[in-house]
User: Fold these one by one.
Assistant:
Number 1:
Amino acid sequence: MRRKDREMNREFGYQVMDKARFGVVSMMDENNQPYGIPLSVAREGNALYFHSAMEGKKVDIFAGSPSVSIVFVGDVKVPELYREEELEEMAKDETKASLLIRKVFTTEFESAMARGRVEKVTSEEERLQGMKVICNKFTPTKMAYFEAAAKAGLYRANVYKLEMEEVTAKRKKYDAQGNEIKQAASVES
């Protein structure tokens, strides 16, 4: 990671994964072409679960080339650190204009990336658990109906699991005074 001052630890990465509404799974297809697809991904411990149809391009890719990376994006926003008068002053003063680039035309963000090998879950018990993890993340208020839904539809879906071999996370954030929070943390693999 080039910006080590923005690197965050594995636990922070897990937090980003847990709140992200989707993850983008990136892989290489049979023609060595990049292929990425957004999926509903949920985490349990060091494992990520997602599901798919029984056939399709990603199913074929996973069977032949299971190494993937999954990227998650958490909170993103444009910081509002200056009043209009301060922005006017910056625009007129060349010595302060670099602040416009660094603190106005920028975004605060948090992201995480996991790498590993995708495996198709074959045991019925773990398939059910994987779907439960996914549903609990995306439809927690409907879990009373999970068993009936799983019984009716689990046989129609593949469930995949990725044991995370590597996790990296990054954040750019400003404090109330407009200073970037530098919180470098070691990343466990």
Number 2:
Amino acid sequence: MEFYRRLVVSLALVSGIAAGLLAATYRVTFPVIQVREREERAKALKNIFFLGSFGGEGMTPREISDGVVALHDPAAPEKPAYYAARGEAAGYNSASPIALMVGFTASGLDARDLLAGYVGADRLPAAGERGHYIVGFSVLSSEETPGLGERVKDRRPPFTWLQFVKGETPPPDPDTATSFQRQFRGRLPDNLLLKKRGGDLDAITASTITSTAVTAAIRDAGEKLAQALRAEPSTAE
């Protein structure tokens, strides 16, 4: 009997010490994780909304729910101009989903005006069209096959001094999206299909599963945005 009593006491002490260490570790690491997440989100937003600078004179993000932010133009702060939402979907590596931050136009404003500068004139919605049209997306995390599916994270490399010396001309805008990423702009999230699935979107070469996961993650972001707006009626569009 004494043996079991000592065993119970020992287990209780070990459990208490482990719980204390976990709590201490959480208190130390949680603020660091929060800072890192904010930095990753800020970077993603700049990749998506490349015409604005976040902070200072540019559009300012306001979190309305976990993973969903509203973006306000300082010239018209009373209502959001854009939204961004996090979306996830399983890709080729099903153990680690692809996570995206997806930018959308505010459905209460003219989508054609909001998308000007992000897509060409031939891709703009008709004047007066409203809805949560896709502005762009940025990859937050992905562990797909290196050299194949992982190319979903590629961005256009920055213009270098060596290119300048060679006489090359800098790109006319700060857009760093690849052609794969750009083709989603100006579309509604519910209508995304690859050519192999009967749609008109090109997949990343030899990465159909990853490309399909991107379309699913964008739809997931659109659904999360819709849920957040239903839960916050004060954000009237």
Number 3:
Amino acid sequence: MNTLPNNLKQIALFLERLPGIGEKTANRMAFYLLRFPERDLKDFAQNIASLKAKTKMCSVCMNLTEDERCSICQETTRDKSVITVVEEVLDLLSFETGNIYKGVYHVLHGKIDPLNHIGPEDLYINSLLERISTNLKRSYQDGKKIKEVVLATNPDMEGEATAMYIRDRLKEVRKQRSAKFKITRLAYGLPIGASLEYADYMTLQKAIENRNEY
């Protein structure tokens, strides 16, 4: 590392701080950048420099955007009566990649994790409740009244705790507003192509609980 030019060394050290990147990989990436055309490097550097300044949260769903509202919230063909709650923006991207969902989202930017001192007040849960309460106050004629909130947090201990907390808060809102929207949780079970022999008991339990008529 000490034999590298200082600027190249600093770039490698920065890349090494990224998740999943070790010293050797960081060095290879730094050398790869060195072979880039200068124009491409300048564009890349400019995007990096303006990343923090240009990126902000959508005022509606807390997705990342450069505008007041993200492209999903601005899309007129979306079914705004269904809101799927996800932990992170990367979870939202997973739904969007497969083009399997036509509703809208709400991003929590984390999950309840007491061991790491993350409580409900550290997430965007209150903004979700305010968003739903505001929606329920209105009298919609165009099908935009909220009909369902899908809790799509991860199926680990913290994700389940977060889903249960939000479920209870949503039930309070539903009762206060005399509303009828559904609160649902993503189904979990055996993936396509899986073998029962290698499935753990929790996966099998979820598969049994979420079985459908065939």
Number 4:
Amino acid sequence: MLIRRDASLLLVVDLQEKLAPAIFEGERVIRNSVRLLQGAQQLGVPAFVAEHCAASIGPIVPEIRNATTIETTAAPRVSPIFFAKSHFSCAAEPDVLDLLRATGRRQVVLVGIECHVCVLQTAFGLHEAGFEVFLAADATSSRTPENHDAGVARMRAGGIHVATTEMVLFEWLHRAATDEFRALLPLIR
């Protein structure tokens, strides 16, 4: 099953200042999440950014906030919607499911931290709510590689589709030799 641009949205979970430095390969997670945010913005894919208990683990990392201010020429600009949460699962947070459903899209590309806690619980909550969930495994991690690997394995076994950042970008694009493809090349190279 392919990730379709017109059927999907992007959800970035808890990439926050005090937690990110403790994450295994955290720079890779942030870099790939930025690539997906920029690709979503350029292609008109709705994006959402969750911030968990900011008073305790800080605000969203600047790279994520700054990624949302790029100029776009390929499609109308789509700015991400930021929301606060206190539940581990975004799907358990009041009004979030309604917010996501209001897009009319049933596929969710999921990224963020920590893979074995908030990302996993969000993935299963969204899956139970009827969404098709695609985890971009190279745009998520945990404090230890063991927890990341266990989270990915458990999600895969539970019916969550596992992909990579490039899989998502190429599936959103669907074809080469277009202005959109040329516009996204810097995110792929």
